[in-house]
């Protein structure tokens, strides 16, 4: 199957039905042992230093891994993607634009997906066959999520990793399914991971994946990864069709729609606090103003840039925040 790059999660059901193997360029970039080379490629080609690292990483990963076709999400994701795909087209990359409509109207979402299917010459029946197959695997990712926040048998990093990979199923559906089944079996045989603090992680997946291990030193565990969970479409099994599934996807639409799901998960998972990760030079950092105002829970905003590990300042801020949460939790116990 021919590879096609993705700038973010898109209706992969359409691409797989059309005979493509989707490749999430974000995952290629961040999992590389030499991830900085992708950034260097972009900056040598003229991308400014004051630009989101993810955008530069996607560009470098696309060129370096011989990806000749990509789907670029030009509405509902990164504001830099339109400029990115213009440059990629200059490099000879064939670009297929896709949009998550800001209107968030059912008919607009349906129109975009129908156009996407038409572009790749596939029918709704073909797409629905693939969707049902992928949703079998998404149910496994959902089980890992439940093993994290209900049964306390998975770490925050494992929760992050296995959900974020559902954006492209690691390039092989059957192998990915087998891997998840093995992971679930291993998790079920473990002792519970009992930590005092139950944390939520919201915002784009981090450049600094060591954040998961770092918080564990302070008797804390992430039991909720917002965007990673959305990548895995946890409500897909109740969606009537692909249109409803992608309508119900919170990440690309307005903040208020996203907040409703956040409030639900804060209550259901009994979270003590939230870490809101934003990327340097990203417009989504401004959303923190709204989130902090509307979410009734302690929330800390941290920012990442080029480093793939936490810097000393961020570690200090995290430590102080976690200490505060522990004090608040102990204080509530004393009052009782």
From TrEMBL:
Cofactor(s) the protein requires to work: [4Fe-4S] cluster
Gene source species: Clostridium tagluense
Keyword annotations: Iron, Iron-sulfur, Metal-binding
GO molecular function list: hydro-lyase activity; iron-sulfur cluster binding
Protein name as annotated: 2-hydroxyglutaryl-CoA dehydratase
Entry's family note: Belongs to the FldB/FldC dehydratase alpha/beta subunit family.
Name of one Pfam family that matches: HGD-D
């Amino acid at each position: 199957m021919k590879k096609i790059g993705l700038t973010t999660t898109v209706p992969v059901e359409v691409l797989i039905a059309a005979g493509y193997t989707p490749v999430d360029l974000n995952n290629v970039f961040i999992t590389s042992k030499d991830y900085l080379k992708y950034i260097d490629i972009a900056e040598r080609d003229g991308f400014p230093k004051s630009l989101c690292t993810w955008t530069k990483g996607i560009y470098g990963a696309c060129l370096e891994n011989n990806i000749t076709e990509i789907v670029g999400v030009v509405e509902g994701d990164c504001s830099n993607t339109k400029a990115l795909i213009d440059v990629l087209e200059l490099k000879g990359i064939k670009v297929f634009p896709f949009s998550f409509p800001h209107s968030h109207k059912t008919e607009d979402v349906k129109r975009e997906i129908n156009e996407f299917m038409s572009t790749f010459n596939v029918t709704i029946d073909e797409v629905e066959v693939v969707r049902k197959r992928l949703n079998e695997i998404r149910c496994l990712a959902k089980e890992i999520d439940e093993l994290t926040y209900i049964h306390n048998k998975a770490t925050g990093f494992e929760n992050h990793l296995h959900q974020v990979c559902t954006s492209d199923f690691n390039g092989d559906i059957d192998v990915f399914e087998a891997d998840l089944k093995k992971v679930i079996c291993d998790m079920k045989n473990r002792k519970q991971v009992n930590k005092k603090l139950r944390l939520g992680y919201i915002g784009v997946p981090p450049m600094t994946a060591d954040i998961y291990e770092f918080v564990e030193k302070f008797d804390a565990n992430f039991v909720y990864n917002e965007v990673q969970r959305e990548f895995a479409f946890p409500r897909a099994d109740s969606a009537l069709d692909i249109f409803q599934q992608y309508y119900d996807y919170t990440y690309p639409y307005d903040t208020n729609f996203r907040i409703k799901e956040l409030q639900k998960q804060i209550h259901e998972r009994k979270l003590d606090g939230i870490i809101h990760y934003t990327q340097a030079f990203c417009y989504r950092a401004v959303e923190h103003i709204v989130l902090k105002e509307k979410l009734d829970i302690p929330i800390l905003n941290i920012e990442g840039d080029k480093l793939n590990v936490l810097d000393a300042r961020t570690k200090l801020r995290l430590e102080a925040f976690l200490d505060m949460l522990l004090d608040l939790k102990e204080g509530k116990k004393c009052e009782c």
